[in-house]
Each structure stands twice: as structure tokens, then as C-alpha cells.
Specification:
single chain, about 300 residues, 3 domains
Length: about 300
């Protein structure tokens, strides 16, 4: 089991060579940044990113410097091609360098927070389906440690399976007991129903309570919440269906009819040729509305 965990997790749970190089190069020069980025540290921990906080900050700074150099060179090259005055070209190059560097730094800074939110969403979707499985494992006589070890043997890539492997690794490799291992996972989990489930399991385990009854009672609550969530999603999809009908069926037809009638009286509208406007409506606006609607509907549909 230990060998399997090492084989599966070793290549993934380590920083990239670029991040390691960034840390070795910049660590002594950017230590003053570490206390100023507490939210980033929390985001990295809750996203379960296999990168130490200091290493990630160093890679952020080096990436921003590289982006700034690229922005300076690109802006200066474009300015020379456009025959812009040297002084203005130099000023634009500096602005482009600073702008691209700051955008890169900001984008990398929010990445862990976005990953943590994505992880929280996945855990919220997976939890109702796994609680019943946990109750079944407890009913078969497994302890809390045995429950997580059984889930860790699953071959899926779901977040709860990853967390179970994390707990199993802490127990079998780092020598933690089950309470310490689960508490360590709770510290790395965003606040939500899943973290509350783990906290309740620890309290029940410490009190000598029946874990099967706890998981069954919690499963009923989560399934009811899941039903309410699915109902809300269905209602939202109904609204989206009406918007789809209006934006992609009614509106294009009405617009084409109106433009066709207006073309009889005047060949243009506001300086634009009416035929060009109809082409823009057909080949640009309608596909754009369709893409936006697909993205919105995909975000509303539960993934499982």
C-alpha cells in the first residue's frame, strides 16, 4: 500500500523545476513579501497544491519579471514598426512592461484561490454520493481509519479519493494517528459541508459513537440539500431556455424582418450598409449569443 502511494503521488506532489529554480534564485531577495500575502498562503493550502508557499511566491515574481521583459520588447518592437517617436516609444515600452508584469503577478496570485473554489465545488458535489458508501463501510465493521483506506484504494480521480489517499499517506508514511491525520486534512479543506462532515466524524469517533448512524443521518441531510439544488438548477435552466428562444430565434427573425423593410426605404442605417448589418447579425451576433448561452447552461448543470 505504501509503495502504491509513493508510486502514484511522488511525481505529482512536488514543485516544477522552474519553481525550484525561482526559489533558489530569489528567496533571499523577496522574503519581505511572505507576510504580505496571507490569503495566498491559505489559498495554496486549501487548494492542496503540491508547492510550498515560499516557492510559489518566488515563481510568481520570476514569472512577472519574465513577462515584463517580454512586454517591454514586444511594445518597443511594435512602436518601432509603427514609426513612433523614440521618447514616446520608450515610455510605451515601460508602461507595457509594467502592465504585463503586474497582470501576470495578479493572475498567478488568484490562481490558488480559484483552485480552492474549484476543489470546494467538487467536494460539495461528491460528498452526498460518498457518505452512503462510508456508512456501508462502517456497517461492515471497518473503523474510521479503515473507511479512508478503503476509499483510497479507488482508482478514480475524485477529490474525496485524493483526500483519502492523503490521510492514508499521513498514517502509513508519516506515522500520524487517524485523528491527527483527519485534522490535518480539515486545515487544508475550504469551509463547507465536507469539512463539517470530517469534523463531525472526528467528534463521533472521539466520543465512541456509532459512525454508521452518524453517516446515515448526515447523508439524509446532504441528499435533501442535493434535491433542492437540482430543483433550483432545473428552474434556472427553464429561464435559460426562454432566453435562448428570445435571443437566438425571435430576435434574429425580428431583426432581419425590420432591416429588410428599412432597406426598401434607405440603403443604410447610421452610416452602415443594411446588408452588412444583416451579415453581422447572422455570422457574428447569433453565434456569439449561442456560445454565451452554452457556457451559462454548462455552468448551471450539475456535473454529477
Amino acid at each position: 500500500m505504501i509503495g502504491l502511494l509513493k508510486k502514484d503521488e511522488a511525481p505529482k506532489n512536488q514543485p516544477s523545476p522552474f519553481q525550484v529554480y525561482s526559489y533558489r534564485l530569489l528567496n533571499k531577495h523577496i522574503y519581505f513579501l511572505y507576510p504580505k500575502l496571507p490569503k495566498l498562503k491559505i489559498g495554496i493550502r486549501e487548494a492542496m497544491m503540491p508547492v510550498p508557499f515560499e516557492v510559489f511566491v518566488a515563481s510568481m515574481v520570476l514569472s512577472s519579471v519574465i513577462a515584463g521583459i517580454i512586454g517591454f520588447a514586444a511594445t518597443l518592437t511594435i512602436s518601432i514598426i509603427l514609426n513612433i517617436e523614440p521618447l514616446i516609444a520608450a515610455l510605451l515600452a515601460v508602461v507595457g512592461s509594467l502592465g504585463l508584469g503586474l497582470v501576470t503577478f495578479a493572475a498567478l496570485q488568484i490562481t490558488p484561490m480559484l483552485n480552492a473554489k474549484t476543489r470546494l465545488t467538487k467536494l460539495r458535489e461528491e460528498t452526498p454520493h460518498y457518505i452512503g458508501y462510508m456508512a456501508t463501510l462502517c456497517a461492515s465493521g471497518l473503523s474510521l481509519e479503515g473507511v479512508f483506506k478503503a476509499i483510497a484504494q479507488e482508482s478514480s480521480n475524485e477529490e474525496i479519493v485524493k483526500d483519502s489517499k492523503f490521510i492514508t499517506r499521513n498514517i502509513e508514511i508519516l506515522g500520524m494517528d487517524i485523528i491527527t491525520a483527519v485534522n490535518d486534512l480539515i486545515k487544508r479543506t475550504p469551509n463547507g459541508s465536507y469539512s463539517e462532515l470530517l469534523e463531525g466524524a472526528i467528534i463521533t469517533f472521539k466520543a465512541g459513537g456509532n459512525l454508521r448512524e452518524y453517516f446515515l443521518a448526515t447523508a439524509k441531510v446532504h441528499l435533501e440539500e442535493k434535491k433542492i439544488s437540482v430543483k433550483r438548477s432545473t428552474e434556472s435552466l427553464g429561464v435559460m431556455a426562454e432566453m435562448y428562444t428570445i435571443l437566438l430565434i425571435v430576435f434574429p427573425l425580428m431583426a432581419v424582418i425590420m432591416l429588410s423593410i428599412m432597406a426598401i426605404m434607405s440603403p443604410d442605417l447610421g452610416g452602415f450598409d443594411l446588408i452588412t448589418l444583416m451579415n453581422m447579425l447572422t455570422y457574428a451576433m447569433v453565434p456569439l449569443f449561442g456560445i454565451v448561452m452554452l457556457i451559462l447552461m454548462d455552468s448551471m448543470v450539475p456535473k454529477r
